[in-house]
Amino acid sequence: MRSADARTTIVAAAAAIGSGKSVVNYRLRDWLLSRQRFWGAPVPIIHCASCGAVPVPESDLPVELPKNIELSGRGGSPLARATEWLNCKCPSCSGPATRDTDTLDTFVDSSWYFLRYTDAHNTQRPFDAMAASSMMPVDIYIGGVEHAILHLLYSRFISKFLWKTRAYGTAAVEHDSTVRSEVKEAIARRETRGARNGEPFTRLLTQGMVHGLTYKDPSSGRFLRSDEVQTEKGNVPRVIRTGETPTMSFEKMSKSKYNGVDPGATVDAYGADATRLHVLYLAPPQDVLEWDTQSIVGMQRWILRLGRLVDTACASSARESIVCALNARNKWSKEARETYRHTHVAIQHATESLEASFSLNTAISALIKLSNYLATVKDCEHPTFGFGLVCLVKMVAPMAPSIGEELWEILIQSKCLHNLGLVDTPNSRIFAQSWPVLDASALKDVSATVVVQINGKVRFKLEDMVPDQYQSELVQIASTMPQAQKWMFDTTGQPKHIVKVIHVPNKLINIIVK
Asked: Is residue 296 helix, strand or coil?
């Protein structure tokens, strides 16, 4: 029996003997709709002694908050004391009535604003069914942990309610003769892709918190300010008043813990791009980030290395355009082929990180590896070097826009881009450029180093081998190496019997002999 069927059977059996029954537990609460606070959208309901709860007429919407209000922080909603605003006439009987004094939390508004974005200038409706249906669901929802618990819950509820009542979605447009059939099919495909049952978001990315270094008094447990702690030689902190070593930990940044970091001061000291790269590189966006100001200098140094690479490219004019070079790819040197491969490996990793995993730290790591390789290239006049650097600057730009734009301008003014055939207009800005396109054929290793084991022990390596060679070919090559004579041949010079060969392509070959 399946779990779902078993649950139903158990509940039915319990109900039959009077020992239990099935109930629904709702996680959704009315916190957003029963707030006795001033700030928020007033509930558009009028209470009449004769007619009961009466909706505010559409012509009188929206209900605006009163201007002159006393905020005491005590005694219920301040709106209950705003008598001029509170007292009104009943829309049904014109008798004396009062407005509802509860307000709606801003989460009510933000729980459907993405639907409004699909038809932001509509003055008659919140949104048009066709407009919302053709654009929903939202591709990705990014928010902190508190949003994942509260806002996400309410926005899903409201979106599902609107979808179920046919405010948008396939059911809302299927009988509309003004909508073309291919458009209806496209909307149905979008719902199948990620908006089943009115789900508003295709993907969720929950951001991690930023934690700061926190000091506590080891005796009292009191949080210490930075001016109460002194760091001595060897980076050992001491409590100035007592000389004791404080308790240290990384905790959520808070004023009460004195562990906050002023972003403005950090930007002034290290630069906006270095700070941004540092934040993105420290941890994936969904993980906790332990802030360390001192390591920002690493990103400053990397930015300087990028500048030196650009200077090298400007001083070493490419011999021909990259397009012409690609037409003669079979004549490239090993270094040129390896440069082209490293470039596209970086493109692959950075693109995947930005489009799929959102692990921007991985993207930056790939770009650092590419820059480190380019710094070792000897033939800087070969177009593959300039091409690799141009791709590097393009991929750096989204995460370090100021540096990216500046390096791009230098490349344009030096004619480097023109010589490579990579820009059409002299004043083209970097964010007008297309993202580098992956050449999958370039990802194949130019050469391979194969470790040779004989009877399970490493004996030597085959360097600069042609990738993806057959097992039999590698055995033949290994047997001709001088290092193999002792292990693969007997004392008379006759080859030993090969019992088994274990081959890991492009990495290892283990020859078992007897």
From this structure: helix
Give CA separation, 286 vs 42, 141, 142, 249, in Å. 36, 12, 10, 20
Q: Return phi, psi of residue 324, to 5°.
A: -65, -40
Q: In this structure, are residues 269 and 278 in contact, taking their beta carbons and an 8 Å threshold?
A: no
Q: Which residue has the tokens 């650092």?
A: 368
Query: In 10 A of CB 42, how many CB atoms?
Result: 20
What single letter denotes the amino acid at residue 193?
R
Q: Quick check: 205 and 140 in contact, CB under 8 A?
A: yes
What would the pLDDT profile of 428-483 be if each residue is shown by its tens digit?
888 888 899 999 888 876 677 889 999 988 988 888 777 778 888 888 888 888 88
Confidence of residue 195 (pLDDT cuts 50, 70, 90): low
CA nearest 249: which of 240, 257, 241? 257
Residue 164 φ then ψ, to 5°: -70, -30
Residue 41 in this model has a pLDDT that exceeds 80:
yes
What the block records as the tokens of 201 is 């978001």
Q: Are 138 and 151 in contact (CB under 8 A)?
A: no
DSSP single-letter state for residue 35: B
Residue 391: strand, helix, or coil: helix
